[in-house]
Design a protein that fits this description.
- The structure holds 2 protein chains of 2 kinds.
- By secondary structure, chain A is mainly alpha-helical.
- Chain A contains 13 helices and no strands.
- Chain A is 74% helix and 0% strand.
- The relative contact order of chain A is 0.13.
- Chain B has one domain (35-277): MetI-like (MetI-like fold, Orthogonal Bundle).
- Chain B has 13 helices and no strands.
- In chain B, helix 3 packs parallel to helix 8 (141-166) and helix 3 crosses helix 10 (182-211).
- Chain B starts with 13 loop residues before the first helix and ends with a helix.
- In chain B, 46% of the residues are buried.
- The chains are: A mainly alpha, B mainly alpha.
- At the A-B interface, helix 1, helix 3, helix 4, helix 5 and helix 7 of A face helix 1, helix 3, helix 4, helix 5 and helix 6 of B.
- Chain B: Its main location: membrane.
- Chain B: The complex is composed of two ATP-binding proteins (CysA), two transmembrane proteins (CysT and CysW) and a solute-binding protein (CysP).
Chain lengths: 288, 278
């Protein structure tokens, strides 16, 4: 090829005109800058408006501390439960053949297309004090709505499909041959799962858990409906951000927001590392 | 109908995995949705219609749907451009841009909401700039549009990107050899290949935007009939302890969601058929 001299202004037929390229890149960078990068910078700028000490002091506030603890507790309950569900659902769907599989997959995906507010409303209508079940539970001393269980349920509803969606395509691709070999060699069902299946799906599982966790800690709409927003008790981090913001406590609101933003950035970092290192074992990279 | 409900399989764990799957699906998703539908049924269709058929509710539903459509449309264009640029071009900061596309998925909606408001409010960095030409963004429908574009941003990019990666250069070369200009090749060869994935992303973005609440309420201004979105109306009814009205609007939104889900499935069937032909 090197002995062919291109005339000035030559460009291969499969690339765009340089001007077009620059316009497209410019449009993409400008849009991402205005929509994604600038808001991220704004969170930290607003949090540090009165200096680092003010930001840290607002995070030391008992209500902020309670919100952080509550959000961590919710994620610690909801994420493992949804991970267990995701593994069970993926196993059931990919290791067995049964009628209605497509319907089951659609039902698992359903929470993605339901508004978080409607999800919260559903929980309130089922477990609220004026429903039959909710009234009975309150009488027994176990309120669900405006308490931790309701927030956990609402969080689980909106994050329900995350792990299952990640695992199902990976396990479909891997097939059943390895598990069948292990079983033929006399391994028990659990041993087969722990030593054959789990190592095969661990990166996809981690990926799903990562996304599930980010959403669980950040969920706002569904939690806003069921939490009752009791300061220090049922106000999660996003709910506390809303309350502080509405009270014009901008630095405090943005300081908490900055903590959640750091979480989001760490999630993205892990996600990118997983995609670079284990692309062949993830569903996201070859899904369309 | 001679097919058994569940085929015999040597795989262990049928009872356990089916049990966990169905129990949790019922407890977390199906029973609560059932509770909403039951509430609607006991309230009665006529009463529900009465609640929904009001100017304020129609305005909110129409606003949510219209702005979601605009935002998803913008995301369709931006998403295809982003996918193309990220796969085909090499420029400094490309990896960072690629990773940042997912930020709207990872950043909590409330955080996005207050951050966008801080920037685009009349006294914010960008808002004050826009104000000099008399353009108010936050607390108008522009603000809602902006928030909806933000939350739907990753969908189109992430569905189209793998398809761009799979396009074979030979196809483009063949088109060029046959005398097509670059623009012609893009219009007649490349875009049709991207269309099914782009439409799926568009529908996902639309479905997400219609139900979005957290990022919108801060920037919307929430003025009835003008900048009040449908999910906010449900929250307002709930705060008034008017559960019947909340359920009626909730069911209306659920119907919109189901219609959207059907649309997504139809698009996927259509795209599968198209890919089958290629």
């Amino acid at each position: 090829m090197s002995d062919i001299t291109h005339p000035a202004g030559f460009r291969p037929a499969t690339t765009e005109h340089p001007l077009t390229r620059w316009l497209l890149v410019g449009f993409a960078v400008l849009a991402m800058g205005l929509l994604v990068f600038a808001p991220l910078v704004a969170v930290f700028a607003e949090a540090l408006r009165d200096g680092v000490t003010a930001a840290l002091a607002s995070l030391g506030n008992p209500d902020a501390q309670a919100a952080i603890r509550l959000t961590l507790a919710i994620a610690a309950i909801a994420v493992p439960l949804n991970a267990a569900f995701g593994i069970a659902a993926a196993w059931f769907i990919t290791k067995f053949d049964f009628r209605g599989k497509a319907v089951l997959i659609t039902l698992i995906d359903l929470p993605f297309s339901v508004s978080p507010v409607v999800a919260g409303l559903c929980i309130v209508l089922m477990f609220g004090a004026n429903s039959a079940l909710g009234g009975w539970l309150v009488a027994q001393g176990y309120p669900v709505v405006f308490a931790l269980p309701g927030i956990v349920l609402a969080t689980m509803f909106v994050t329900f499909p995350f792990v299952a969606r990640e695992l199902i395509p990976v396990m479909v691709e891997q097939g059943r041959a390895e598990e069948e070999a292990a079983l033929t060699l006399g391994a028990s069902g659990w041993r087969t799962f722990w030593t054959v299946t789990l190592p095969n799906i661990r990166w996809a599982l981690l990926y799903g858990v990562l996304l599930c966790n980010a959403r669980a800690m950040g969920e706002f709409g569904a939690v806003a409906v069921v939490s009752g927003k009791i300061r220090g008790q049922t106000a999660t981090m996003p709910i506390t951000i809303e309350m502080l913001y509405n009270e014009y406590l901008s630095v405090a609101a943005f300081s908490l927001a900055a903590v959640l933003s750091v979480l989001a950035l760490v999630t993205l970092l892990f996600k990118t590392v997983l995609e670079l290192r284990h692309a062949d074992q993830l569903a996201a990279t070859h899904r369309h | 109908m001679g097919r058994p409900l569940i085929h015999r399989s040597p795989m262990p764990g049928l009872g356990l995995s089916m049990g966990i799957t169905l129990t949790m699906l019922c407890l977390v998703v199906l029973l609560p949705i059932g509770a909403l539908l039951t509430k609607g049924a006991t309230f009665g269709f006529a009463n529900m219609w009465d609640v929904v058929n009001r100017e304020r509710v129609w305005a909110a539903l129409f606003l949510s749907f219209r702005l979601s459509l605009f935002a998803a449309g913008f995301n369709l264009v931006l998403g295809v451009v982003l996918a193309w640029v990220l796969v085909r071009y090499r420029f400094p900061g490309r990896r960072l841009l690629d990773a940042a596309v997912d930020l709207p998925f990872a950043l909590p909606t409330a955080v996005a909401g207050i951050a966008l408001t801080a920037l685009y409010a009349p006294n914010g960095a960008f808002g004050s700039l826009a104000a000099t030409i008399g353009w108010q963004i936050a607390y108008t429908q522009w603000g809602i549009f902006l928030a909806l574009v933000f939350v739907g941003l990753p969908f189109v990019t992430r569905t189209v990107q793998p398809v761009v990666e799979e396009i074979e250069r030979e196809v483009e070369e063949a088109s060029a050899t046959l005398g097509a200009s670059r623009g012609h090749t893009i219009r007649r060869v490349i875009l049709p290949m991207l269309a099914p994935a782009a439409m799926t992303g568009f529908a996902l973005s639309l479905a997400r935007a219609v139900g979005e609440y957290g990022s919108v309420i801060f920037i919307a201004g929430n003025i009835p009939l003008i900048t009040e979105i449908a999910p906010l109306l449900i929250v307002i009814r709930l705060e008034e302890f008017d559960y019947d009205a909340a359920a009626a609007i909730g069911i209306a939104m659920l119907l919109v969601s189901f219609a959207m889900l059907l649309l997504i499935n139809l698009i996927q069937v259509w795209s599968r058929r198209r890919i089958g032909h290629v």
